[in-house]
Amino acid sequence: MDHTKHLWRVVLILVLAGAGAIIGRHFLIPKSFGEQGFYRYDSLGDYMTQPVRHGGDAACAACHKDRADAKAGGKHATVSCESCHAPMASHATTEAKTADMPKNRDMTLCLWCHQKLRARPETMPQIEISEHLAALDPEDAKKADVCFNCHDVHNPSMK
Amino acid sequence: MPYMKGEPMNDNKEMKSDAALEVSRRDFLGTIAGALSAVALVIVADDAVYIASGAEPGAPLPAGGYDPDKHSYVYVIDITKCIGCGSCVRACKAENNVPDLFFRTWIERYMVSRSGEVSVDSPKGGYDGFDPSITGDEITKAFFVPKMCNHCSHSPCVQLCPVGASYRSPDGVVLVDEKRCIGCGYCVQACPYGSRFLNPETKVASKCTWCYHRITKGMRPACVEMCPRGVRKFGDAKALHDEVSEIIATKQVHVLKPELLTEPNLHYLGLSMEVR
């Protein structure tokens, strides 16, 4: 068998290629790739560990029960606390207050929902600001709290 | 090792004449092959142990016992109720750290005149509300359309991702593996709904995740949570007595661009034909 060494060469190359492929695959393909499909399954875990920023009304009511109750009884019952204030996480952690509650006292806050717009459903209470504040001095109309002087924001009937 | 058993290396005169080399070529290659095989064997054994240890697919996810196979999420947007306040857009930005001038959800305002002329605007995605002044012909109908990823069952963005970074999770959410994405932008072009963008901070594709970090904890997506009019509804088709599945089953719902056969899981109530 004069040609045996040629066969061994082929075997050697195949062993090298196979071992190289296994090693390369091990380091190039992430561990959970392909478990459920052509993607890295652990990526789901990456998303799941992202921090939650909006705590929801129940989290707010834990400390601010008076405001939550006022809101629940009025026309702003479906308006989430954090849609006017800010995400809870910037104001409080599980137990402690970390910063002051953000408050937007400008009329822009109210007008996001109540500015009269043609595309807005007619069932939505809307105002044309120039008509609504016609009795006010134009300079006064620009001040903060201009809405809150007449309306309780948490239960927005007339004060 | 089998390749060491061959004939002695008496035929390799060149090798012997090289005084600098103390190891023969055959021995050298044999050692390399042996070492590589050993490493490969260790890896194979390691993987086998990992599989045999009962690490079922999906086992290593964090958070208390969430099983993606037991959920199938659906979403409904009721256009007839939307007031275009932008709460959802602001909530999404804050919840997910979306960079300025990029949007995972946004609101479009459609204004249609009697002649059929359609004008659409979405200033800053509706983040700061909408301009009350109306231009153009007499408007005969106008409405807001909140837009976002449609989380299609057959999404082009998943099909064409060259590296397997875009995928649809077992619970029906289309996601981007940000560690794997190479930022080629193919999916941004492929999405027929314009729901994706390349994040200028991370340089990879980014999109709505239905707030995957929230829904896997039993919470609702931030946009749904912050919507003051109940326009946005999020449900689970595998849950019993699910309100949203009930709406899809019993009401006249529509999806965007059904002709593309992407099978969106985002459904619209009150959709008008002008909406693209």
In short:
Chain A has 159 residues and is mainly α. Chain A is built from eight helices and no strands.
Give an overview in words.
- The complex is a heterodimer of chains A (159) and B (276).
- The termini of chain A are far apart.
- Chain A folds into two domains: 45 residues, no CATH class; 85 residues, no CATH class.
- Chain A is built from eight helices and no strands.
- The mean pLDDT of chain B is 88.
- Helix content of chain B is 25%, strand content 18%.
- Chains A and B meet through helix 1, helix 2 and helix 6 of A and helix 2, helix 3, strand 2, strand 4 and strand 5 of B.
Architecture per CATH nomenclature, i.e. the level-2 architecture of the largest domain in chain B = 2-Layer Sandwich
Shape of chain A, please? elongated
Q: Averaged pLDDT of chain B, please? A: 88
Task: Give me the Rg of chain B, rounded.
Answer: 28 Å
Count of separate structural domains of chain B: 3
CATH class of the largest domain in chain B: Alpha Beta
Structural category of chain B is: alpha+beta
Overall number of structural domains of chain A: 2
Query: How far is the N terminus from the C terminus of chain A?
Result: 107 Å
Envelope shape of chain B? elongated
- Fraction of residues in helix of chain A: 40-55%
Low-confidence stretches of chain B: none
Strand segment tally of chain B: 11
β-sheet strand percentage of chain B: 15-25%
Which residues of chain A form runs of ≥5 with pLDDT under 50? none
- The secondary structure category of chain A is mainly alpha
Give me the side-by-side strand order of the main sheet of chain B. 9-1-11-10
Number of helical stretches of at least 4 residues of chain A: 8
Order of helices and strands of chain A: HHHHHHHH
Provide the succession of SSEs of chain B.
Answer: HHEHEEEHEEHEEHHEHEE
